[in-house]
Amino acid sequence: MEPVGAKIAVVGAGAVGTSIAYAALIRGVARTVALMDVNEAKVQAQVLDLQHGLEYVPRARVIGGADPQICADADVVVFTAGAKQNPGQSRLELAEATIALTRTALPPIVEAAPNARFVMVTNPVDVVTYAALKFTGLPRTQLFGSGTVLDSSRLRFLLSEHCGVAVQNVHAYIAGEHGDSEIPLWSSATVGGVPLLDWTPLPGRAPLDRAAREGIRDEVVGSAYRIIEGKGATNYAIGLAAARITEAVLGDEHRVLPVSSLVDDDALGFGDVCLSLPTVVAAGGALQRLPIAMSESEAAGLCDSARTLREMQRRFGL
Fold this sequence. Notes:
By secondary structure, the chain is an alpha/beta fold. The chain is 40% helix and 18% strand. The strands form five sheets. A six-stranded parallel beta sheet has the order 3-2-1-4-5-6, sandwiched between helices.
């Protein structure tokens, strides 16, 4: 029987792509999960492995192949294909090879699934998202990047550990680049409804002073490098994060997520760059950005992050 319901397509059957597919199946995100990869043998093996676990997840089917038509009629396409990040290598150093791959690989997928919402996950995600918009001509709402959704989750986890509360009670965002110039938005963060900058430590806990915040920020920025050095790739958390973005689209949730989308005006002091800000994500894709409060230093840091990304765009002729 052909399943009735949403379909997601994941492009790239590597560690990240298969983690997204796995997370989507476990969370019951869609009735059809399609994997696409140019390596036919690999993608078929991944599909078979996932199919063998279908008894234990909400009802779904898994399909896969090397032909972009496997993505036809997808509601959401998650693009993970790209060069692998090596130990010690920055995300921005991956740009040239990944942009070239995106230029050739993405347009046939858009042709197969023209009405899908496209979520770019490949690093460096902000520059790749900008390039993908140029290559496809899709609107900024329809094609956007995973941005700092994962970085914000890392930040919330570290704050919860420091403060001694559940991570679900921490609300804080990372903005700007998904990378070294990203900015924690401390001035709008809360812990259990208490403004983070007014947080009083619980008994036995260290204060959340400037030094502690700077240490947490450094841990967020450096965590991917440490994971890659230890096991070669980050995959589980980004799998969950991308599945969560997909849920927000398919469920028309109007959930606020810091995805990376095109800033096409100068209202923030910069424009013509893709970066992350808290954004309403729903069936229409990445909708309006929230006018979140920032301190002067945070706003300046966001502008610096935008300049970093624009310089990289120019370097690759975008």
